[in-house]
Each structure stands twice: as structure tokens, then as C-alpha cells.
Amino acid sequence: MSVRFKGTDLRPVLLEAVVNQCRIVLVKDQGVYFLAERGERGPDGRQKLIAYAVGCNPDVDTFDGWSELAHAEFGGDDFGEFFDPRDGVFALILHNANDLEVSATVTHLSLQAVVPPPISN
């Protein structure tokens, strides 16, 4: 099992981190998402650019849905994991039309660039 981040959602977060010369953070708490370590904030103090995993956005997905998916893939504990947005798989996301799949074991996170699914009519 894995969660998918749409490249169209993730690229702006990666670009913000590159411009701000900071890391990106994979977070599991109220949803599963990436954000720049030093990103622009709105008037409410909330970070403006956030890329949620498909099905794990508490603003659009039901609590039971995103919570169950996040727990099944990443376990019950909240966490934040830091990455360099210019390294490895993130360079593929920045410079191609790829999505990102993230899966987890007890000891490892696996990140893989994947071709987005075809758009259905």
C-alpha cells in the first residue's frame, strides 16, 4: 500500500523550498502532507502551500477516510520527516510530470516517482 501526491500539488511546495533554501517536510498529523520548512504563511498563521496526499486532506476528505488511510500506511504516531527538495526523486517531480508515491515500513520510508494516472472523462 502507498499514498500518492499529485505532482501538480507537490511542485509548488518543492519550488518554495528551493527558493527559500530550506528542506521540505513530510508530515503525518491532521492528514498527510508535504510543506516547505520555511514557507509563506497566511493571516491565520497557517502555511499557504501544502501538498496533501490523495485521500488524506482533512479539508476535503472525511475524518474516517483520511485517518484510516494515514494510519494504515504510517501507523498511529504523528511525525515529521525532513528532505532536501533538490535530491533524488524530488528532482524528478520538479522537472517532469510525475506524481510521488510514498510507502512506509516500521523502519523505512520509500519514495518513488510515478506516471500520473490517465484523466478519465
Provide key terms for this protein.
about 120 residues, alpha+beta, four-stranded antiparallel sheet, three-stranded antiparallel sheet, 3 helices, globular
Give a description of the structure.
With 121 residues, the chain is α+β, with helices and mostly antiparallel strands. The strands form two sheets. It has a four-stranded antiparallel sheet. Strand 6 and strand 7 form a beta hairpin. The longest helix has 13 residues. The protein is globular, with a radius of gyration of 14 Å.
Give the SSE layout.
Elements: E1 3-5, H1 7-19, E2 24-29, E3 31-36, E4 51-52, H2 63-74, E5 79-83, H3 88-95, E6 99-104, E7 109-114
Antiparallel strand pairs: 1-6, 2-3, 2-5, 3-4, 6-7
Helical stretch count? Answer: 3
Distance between the termini: 26 Å
User: What average pLDDT do the residues reach?
Assistant: 92
SSE string:
EHEEEHEHEE
In helices, the fraction of residues equals: 25-40%
Query: What structural class results from the helix and strand content?
Result: alpha+beta
Low-confidence regions:
none
Number of strands: 7
Please list the strands of the largest sheet in the order they lie side by side.
4-3-2-5
Strand content: 25-35%
Q: Tell me about the biggest sheet?
A: 4 strands, antiparallel
Shape: globular
Using only C-alpha atoms, the radius of gyration works out to 14 Å
